[in-house]
Amino acid sequence: MRQRCDRHQNRTAGPAVRTPARITIDRRSTMQDHPYLGMWVTADGHIRQELLPDGRYDEQRGTRRSAYRGRYEVRGTHIDYWDDTGFTADGTFVGEDRLHHGGMVFLRER
Question: Could you tell me if 53 and 38 are in contact, meaning their C-beta atoms sit under 8 angstroms apart?
């Protein structure tokens, strides 16, 4: 039986794709200009959550500053939170100025 040469095998299998062994993401550069950065506030003003450009958030509850802190990631309109105390949460951006998170509605503070 005749064997195909490597060149022919590559042609039938499609172009060779090289995958980097490791991809490093610099969160500061990816989040620096993100459209959802800034302060998000419940309608009564009780909860104030700031999404920082370094991928961290800081949440104030009433007069308690930095009640919750942690990191976050946004993919499309979905946001995932990893609080420093260990719990996780998520939310969804609805339009440019509204965030649904934890059963609450946050509005962007302009």
Answer: no
Predicted TM-score of the model (pTM) = 0.71
Paired sense of beta strands 88-93 and 98-101, if any: antiparallel
56 contacts 63 by C-beta, under 8 angstroms: no
- Distance from C-alpha of 68 to C-alpha of 61, rounded to nearest angstrom: 8
* Cα atoms found within 13 Å of the Cα of residue 86, Cβ hemisphere only: 0
Low-confidence residues of the chain, pLDDT below 70?
A: 1-31
Q: Which residue has the tokens 């962007």?
A: 108
Per the structure block, which two tokens stand in for 75? 């993919």
Pairing of strands 64-75, 78-83: antiparallel
